[in-house]
């Protein structure tokens, strides 16, 4: 029982995380990317149209970027008459706009929030999963330090997903990594660490029975048998037929009966 870890993530059977799509989602609208297809919100459009503004005539011009060798040119917004990005005669200054444009083009995709209906690039999910699997390999080989290290890496990557990506995905990945790490700590007899990770898993995914199982397991390790029983009962509220929890409940009840006899 102690050799088991938590490979099936919460909700893993219900849905993939979008990385089984046939087509890849690069940075939308990025350099060379396909044009963005964004639905215009009529209310937002109305609001924008209602803002007072004075249209300024402008042109687009291919301008060299200073101090680039070989010279790089970029499309810039310039005044219509003099083709200058900052023109006193026309009383326009497009420097800020051009700077922002240059920044958006140069910035790595993860620095720019994608439009709301776009799936995150699949690479991150793959790296998070690869770290988890490296952890599992070490776990099976009984190499606990390396297992813990890889599960930690997997959790760190999941937690450092950009804030605009689906929080549920990050929560699932983090919960799986910490659940596995709890199992690794348990195998090493590091029960306090195993308990801390199990509690984090429950905080992330309360309905997932694995978290409750790991918590009960750690509490038994700490010889807190009655609390372990409560933890199992907590978990069974979410899935009364869970085999792992029901088996462990029997095991714990035997321990409690022995305690009473002593
Ligand atoms: Zn001008």
UniProtKB/TrEMBL annotation:
The keyword Methyltransferase does not apply. Residues 1-39 are annotated as: Disordered. Keywords: Repeat, TPR repeat. It comes from the Eukaryota. Residues 1-23 have a biased composition (Basic and acidic residues). The keyword Repeat applies. This is Translocation protein sec72. It comes from Vanrija albida.
